[in-house]
Each structure stands twice: as C-alpha cells, then as structure tokens.
Design brief:
five-stranded mixed sheet, Spore Coat Polysaccharide Biosynthesis Protein SpsA, Chain A, globular, alpha+beta, 44% helix, 12 helices, 2 domains
Length: 287
C-alpha cells in the first residue's frame, strides 16, 4: 500500500501517516525500515487495538490537512488513482465521502456500491427479480451518487468529519463507514463513486486474521447496531425475519447442492446455526 502511494504523495507534497493498531506481525517495523527517513512518512503506534473506528479517529484527530484520504492497509492504488480522487473533491465540493472503483487482486471488479441496510433495501438486494434495482448490482462504471461505499478507501474533508464527530466507536468491526456515511447523508453530504480511480483491495485480510472464515457473522451484529441507532419502528423485527428466512434458504440449498458448502461457509449447517444465534440472541438495546 505504501509503495503504491509513495510517488504520488511526494509529488503532491502530502503526508502519509501509518496508524499501527497494535499489530503483531512486524509490519510496522518493516514500514519504518523502508520509509522511515522520508519526510512525508509518519508511523503512529497504538498500545491496544482500538478497532477501525477508534483507530481512524485517533489517527485523524491531530492531522493538519483540509482533505483526508483514509485507506486500509490491504489496498494498492493503481497509477493516477490518488490524483483522480483529489480532483473529484474539486468537482463535488458538497460530497461527504468520495471513493474509488475497487478491484480484486486478479483485476476483476469488487462490487463496492451499497444501499443503506434497511430491511426493504436488503430484501431488494437479495431477491433476484429485484436485484437490478440494488446498488451492489450496478455496473460500477459511471461516476455517481450512492447511499454508501465500501470503506477500503474514503476521501473526505476534515471539517465535515469533525462536524459529525467522526466515526462512532461503538462500531468496532464492520459498518463503521456505513454509519458515518449515513450521518453525512442526513446532513446533505452524499457519497460519490469515482470509477476513474482504481484501487486493488484484498477484502477482509485483517478480519480473517481475527475471525477466520466466520467473518460474515460479524456483519449481523453490525447491521443490528445500525438499525438500533437509525432504524424505524419494527425495522429490527423485519430484519431478523428476512435474514432468518435467508439463512434457512441457504441451509436448504447447502443440503440440496453438496458442492455449495465447500465453496461458501454461509451454506454450511454450523454457520447457519451460529447466524440464527446472532440474529435472535437477546440484547438489552433491542426494541
């Protein structure tokens, strides 16, 4: 990630800050050995894992810059992409968040456009006949407004970020960027997708280290947390009913097509049991 940005940061007279969220793999030492003498490079180490939201807030807090480009460590910027994102800030001064077109390591499209996770929009996303109206199924070729963008790379103005008090640190893992972009949206600052900027994203690399193959389960509690904060009356009930039905269909599909569980853990019986538990376990904050 640093190597892909180094030339552009230097040319633009920018600063690259690496916030090390209490890693244990030695990557912080490697980065310091390679880039430590560059005047545009800074390494900040945390003594504890603050989660994505807490780490991002702490990293951004003392930055003296008008524009922030927040990038995950598992990203690689293709040539010219940083410049394209910064040019988009000038084209869309009202934007809350600006994000690039994400690619898998093999160069294929990684779908990063999303609708806010309210039940009726999740139903539209998962029902094939309605799928064409869902943001995730958009061709991802046109510059456009969207509900929210997968937060592998997010560009925003620091004053807007501070105005809404940054990320909600109650979201430790997943949907931090969703919740941030929803609050920006309510303030009249939409998210914009910029396909001329392309970034390779090794999605879930950090999460897989922490949670293994069951990272999808963490999305359930994150969506419930989002709905507790921003949902309408009955939205949690509808979410649980729909997602419960979806898990049941996946379980049945896994039995009927034995090859599916080998390709996707979400079709296995143990995963579906854990998903049901996450969906329906009691929480004092539930409505």
């Amino acid at each position: 990630m640093i190597e892909s940005l180094a030339d552009s940061v230097e040319e633009l007279s920018g600063e690259l800050i690496v916030f090390d969220n209490n890693s244990s793999d030695g990557s912080d030492r490697i980065a310091l050995e390679i880039w430590g003498e560059k005047n545009w490079f800074t390494l900040i180490k945390s003594s504890e894992n603050l989660g994505f939201a807490g780490g991002a807030n702490k990293a951004i807090n003392d930055i003296d810059a008008e524009i922030i480009v927040l990038a995950n460590s598992d990203t690689v910027f293709l040539p010219g992409s940083l410049q394209a994102l910064l040019e988009a800030v000038d084209r869309h001064p009202e934007a809350g968040v600006i994000g690039p077109r994400l690619l898998w390591p093999d160069g294929t499209l990684q779908r990063s456009l999303r609708d806010f996770p309210f039940p009726w929009k999740l139903i539209r996303e998962h029902i094939p006949l309605l799928g064409s109206r869902s943001a995730v199924h958009d061709p991802h070729v046109a510059e456009q407004r969207v509900d929210w963008l997968v937060g592998a790379v997010m560009v925003f103005k620091k004053d807007l970020f501070e105005k809404i008090h940054g990320f909600d640190e109650d979201f430790f893992f997943y949907h931090e960027e969703t919740e941030l972009q929803y609050r920006l949206f309510k303030e009249g600052n939409d998210s914009f997708f910029i396909p001329s900027a392309e970034v390779i994203h090794i999605e879930g690399a950090s999460a897989r280290k922490m949670f293994g193959r069951e990272t999808y389960l963490k999305y359930i509690q994150a969506k419930l947390k989002f709905l507790r904060k921003h949902g309408y009356t009955g939205s949690i009930v509808l979410f649980r009913l729909f997602m419960g039905l979806l898990q049941g269909c996946r379980l049945l599909a896994g039995y009927l097509r034995p090859a599916l569980p080998g390709r996707d853990i979400r079709y296995t019986a143990p995963y579906c049991r854990k998903a049901f538990h996450e969906l329906f376990r009691r929480n004092r904050q539930d409505d």
